[in-house]
Amino acid sequence: MTQGFKGDIGFYIKNLKTGKVASYNADTVFPTASIVKVPILVGILDKLEKGELNYHDQLTYADSLYYAGVDILGSFKDGEKIELSKVIMLMCTTSDNTASLWLQQLAGTGTRINQLMDELRLPNTKVNSRTPGREEIRKQYGWGQTTPAEMATLFEKMLQREVINGHASDKMMRILGRNYWDEEGLSKIPPGVFVASKNGAVDASRSEVMYVNGHKTPYIFAVFTKNNEDRSWEPTNEAWELTRRMSDFVWTYFNAE
């Protein structure tokens, strides 16, 4: 399926019953685009578990937080109140960039998040934007970077309750199970199946990662692309079409009746 793709592609697929893996360019570094919000989520849960933040804290939105785009939080008026839990929901569910940059700041900046990734033995998974010392690499990868294998491993560690602790891991999996962006790889999973997922997209990079609790075989599927020739934002974008085909194939392979 990936042969002939006009760009660079890597994927990592793991059968969670047998531990078997199928992969291609799985250790190659790719831009995360909005998938960087998964490490940011880890940073926020670290603060919550330490008692430095409370899930139901009332926060005050300020115009200085605004990041240009079509995000929900950016439409708030200066001084409006919003609960931290809802800011987290906006980051992970609708991929709200204003919410995400606010949470990155609350998590202790990208530097602290990157330390957490190192502690999890994910050395290539990094936040670059607004992180001192990473200005040059940001020019290459944008907001964040990872590999298909590392991001899939982060999801598996959450599933195994190894990210921060069991309570934090469970919370993150629930949060990542509420994805508004369900028209690419996620669209090929039956609606009665639990999926924790995150997608990311910029002009030349479209990627997706998901844990699928299949009734026969649970699995993790991560596909990342970069340097894509097709930079359109229509549903027929080459990378999105390929992601759907791959997701459909993997679901059918593991869980077809």
UniProtKB/TrEMBL annotation:
Catalytic activity: a beta-lactam + H2O = a substituted beta-amino acid
Keywords: Hydrolase
SUPFAM superfamilies, per database record: beta-lactamase/transpeptidase-like
Gene3D superfamilies: DD-peptidase/beta-lactamase superfamily
Taxonomic lineage from the root: Bacteria, Pseudomonadati, Bacteroidota, Chitinophagia, Chitinophagales
Name the UniProt record assigns to this protein: beta-lactamase
Family recorded in the similarity comment: Belongs to the class-A beta-lactamase family.
Spans traversing the lipid bilayer: none
Top EC class for this record: hydrolase
Beta-lactamase class A catalytic domain boundaries: 10-225
A Pfam family annotated for this UniProt entry: Beta-lactamase2
Organism the protein comes from: Phnomibacter ginsenosidimutans
